[in-house]
Amino acid sequence: xxxxxxxxxxxxxxxxxxxxxxxxxxxxxxxxxxxxxxxxxxxxxxxxxxxxxxxxxxxxxxxxxxxxxxxxxxxxxxxxxxxxxxxxxxxxxxxxxxxxxxxxxxxxxxxxxxxxxxxxxxxxxxxxxxxxxxxxxxxxxxxxxxxxxxxxxxxxxxxxxxxxxxxxxxxxxxxxxxxxxxxxxxxxxxxxxxxxxxxxxxxxxxxxxxxxxxxxxxxxxxxxxxxxxxxxxxxxxxxxxxxxxxxxxxxxxxxxxxxxxxxxxxxxxxxxxxxxxxxxxxxxxxxxxxxxxxxxxxxxxxxxxxxxxxxxxxxxxxxxxxxxxxxxxxxxxxxxxxxxxxxxxxxxxxxxxxxxxxxxxxxxxxxxxxxxxxxxxxxxxxxxxxxxxxxxxxxxxxxx
Length: 400
Ligand SMILES: Cc1ncc(COP(=O)(O)O)c(C=O)c1O
Hints:
8-stranded mixed β-sheet, Aspartate Aminotransferase, domain 1, 4-stranded mixed β-sheet, Aspartate Aminotransferase, domain 2, single chain, binds pyridoxal-5'-phosphate, 2 domains, 14 strands
């Protein structure tokens, strides 16, 4: 038998054979079967919040440049103009910024440069489940740490560390947590950095929602950008569009070298064209990014309030609802234990609305995520959100 005649599956690596099938994302959706369905499934930005016209102008400018540098190879770290803009915004030297193909790619690079096979990684509980999928490549073990209204529970983490548990890394979403919406206060960020430095683990701070803050200025100080023990992961996905596949890492200098070494054996660099268009967009008209964010924040803040208000009207007292202070999700909790959360999701689907069940998100025991609904409001207009709440209300009444 020659290699060519072997069935394809016999040529799979053990690495690929050990991977589980992706669950929960990319499945067939209700809208495929029912055109009036309302899907509150993913953290997707609204097209109206994305600066399409300005990006088109940037693309035209970039493609008119003599010699067409945007269609050529470029550096593994990212093109200088983009790295410089990011470095200024993050308040770090350019040498610590590496451009990536989005947040998930940044997480994969963080994992692959930090975690040995089989090592322990402390993770949010509940957790953004794609991170666990990324960890499968390292066959890592996980240590769930509770996340609440103030983000990661540092007391729980500290008690593990005191008792001798030694994770190689810790994964958390520090701002407008996905799914549970909490944010880690400044004092706790400092404390987490102190713990990482003392106990020798690396923090993967995954921050895609940071810029979608509904009120007030961003905190002045960001401890995650000033430690040898933190990889700060970010992306343009939620602000300029997931289809760009563009993000960045802020890393300690030594780790930046490791990431470049790894990537120069993989994809070489992110798309020069996409990097060039975004760099032109960010620098041609100073302030355009912040104006884009202002529009997005106002839109999402209104949608969050609309959905929370409509849910309270349509199902009075049924949910405990914290109106989020940023991000793209509502995370209401069912107060009444006699309401079955799985049946509610099925009934809501029958009524024509789909959302992500909270039971999709735990990384271990000790969370009440299964009693929650994750309702994504980013790409659904206010009147459709009100209709979605009415449908959820009808689904709730099927059980009362
Ligand atoms: C917490 C979190 N991390 C990472 C990502 C992935 O971002 P990207 O699309 O840039 O890979 C998302 C997207 O939903 C997210 O919610």
